Amino acid sequence: MAVIRDPAQRDYLRRFVPMMIAYAVLCFVAPALISATGARGPVLWVIAVLPALPIIGVFWIIGQLFLRLRDDYVRMLEVRKALVATGLTLSLTTAWGFLEIYARAPHIPTFYVAVIWFAGLGVGGLVNQLIERDSAA
Amino acid sequence: MTNRLRVLRAERGWSQGDLADRLQVSRQSVNAIETGRYDPSLPLAFRIAELFGLAIEQVFTSPSKEP
User: Cα A125–A126–A132 angle (5° rounding)?
Assistant: First the structure.
């Protein structure tokens, strides 16, 4: 496993964990609040969007990682991962959209766009490994 | 872009990790630069050259002068 030496990577991990904890908590809190308060209208919208906020926060900390990484080779690898993830997400969601229109494929909630993108980061990591085979002895 | 990084490093008996520590980058970065898979940014190229007490063109070969 690579040693994390860049402060930007440490900051990323330090911020990522609380965001994920907040997301897990809000996934339970939001529906509980909605059913307990019987919220409607704008209040319902505010409560319903709560679990999205930590995910949006993760996009922000990923952006911060790109901006603050001192090691430009590592930054290139991270950006390539995000490009693969973005290309994959746009391609899959565009193709699925047409399948929904013309082939009556089941509707997939837009929430899954972020899920696909995060999975795409994993694919991007594999692409990096394939391209950047470490030839050091 | 070809370079003399591996030779310069070997002359000093440094491992890739040693050089990475001195440059404050990852070992993977040093490996990628040495093997020509990645061209460093200009600030990093200057840091590399200054570390070896050389001019940039004594470490890296200009693409226009490569055979």
Answer: 85
Which residues fall within 8 angstroms of residue A54, CB to CB, at 6 or more apart? A19, A20, A22, A23, A26
pLDDT value at position A134? Answer: 53
Q: From A127, A75, A136, A78, select the one nearest B44 (Cα to Cα).
A: A75
The Cα B58–Cα B8 span in angstroms is: 10
Task: Look at A136 and B24 and tell me if their CB atoms are within 8 Å.
Answer: no
| Threshold 0.90, pTM exceeds | no
pLDDT tens digits for A105-122?
999 999 899 999 999 999
Q: Which residues of A38-65 are buried (b: 16+ CB within 10 A; e: fewer)?
A: ebeeeeeeebeebbeebbebbeebbeeb
Phi, psi of A104 (to 5 degrees): 55, 35
pLDDT in tens, A20-61: 999 999 999 999 999 999 889 999 999 999 999 999 999 999
- Are residues A53 and A26 in contact, defined by beta-carbon separation less than 8 angstroms? yes
Identify which of B16, B31, B40 has the shortest CB distance to residue A72: B40
Q: Residue A136 and residue B16: Cβ atoms within 8 Å?
A: yes
